[in-house]
């Protein structure tokens, strides 16, 4: 079961990153060029929200089934925090990814309350780009590529 969930989580992450990059670039371009916010822009933002939340759910299931999770009981908090690999998989990656998804959720919610195009694009550009930067900072690149 662990291998299947890890496979899904790893390959779904590519989709999350692609969609988040598209949403960030779309919102930055929309803001910079004073484009009119339309249905396509809304769908891109919504799809980014949905894909990232699905990745969070898959990640939570993976977190509690991974062998790394058992290390909390075996070596304790001090042991996990001293080992950079365990710290990445047990603390840094989950925490930063949750923060990134919180930013995506906040950006999506805040942009819906704006009435004109420029503020909508601005909110999405800020929150989605910050989420992208956070995600890129804590992807375990050594095992991902």
Features of the shown structure:
mainly alpha, 89% helix, 0% strand
Detailed description of the structure:
It comes from Gillisia hiemivivida. The chain has 145 residues and is mainly alpha-helical. The protein has one domain. 89% of the residues lie in helices and 0% in strands. It contains 6 helices and no strands.
Could you provide a short overview of the structure?
This protein is mostly helical and 145 residues long.
Termini separation comes to: 22 Å
Overall pLDDT, averaged? 93
Structural class: mainly alpha
Query: What fraction of residues sit in β-strands?
Result: under 5%
Number of individual domains: 1
Q: Please trace the helix and strand order, writing H or E for each element.
A: HHHHHH
Layout of secondary structure:
Layout: H1 2-32, H2 39-65, H3 67-82, H4 84-113, H5 117-137, H6 141-144
């Amino acid at each position: 079961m662990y291998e299947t969930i890890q496979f899904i989580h790893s390959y779904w992450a590519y989709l999350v990153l692609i969609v988040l990059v598209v949403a960030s670039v779309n919102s930055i371009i929309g803001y910079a060029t004073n484009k009119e916010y339309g249905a396509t822009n809304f769908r891109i933002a919504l799809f980014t929200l949905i894909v990232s939340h699905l990745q969070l759910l898959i990640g939570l299931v993976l977190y509690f089934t991974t062998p790394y999770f058992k290390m909390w009981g075996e070596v304790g908090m001090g042991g996990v925090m001293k080992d950079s690999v365990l710290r990445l998989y047990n603390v840094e990656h989950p925490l930063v990814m949750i923060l990134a998804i919180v930013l995506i959720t906040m950006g999506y919610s805040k942009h819906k309350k704006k009435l004109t195009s420029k503020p909508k694009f601005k909110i999405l550009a800020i929150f989605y780009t910050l989420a992208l930067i956070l995600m890129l900072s804590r992807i375990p690149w050594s095992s991902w590529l």
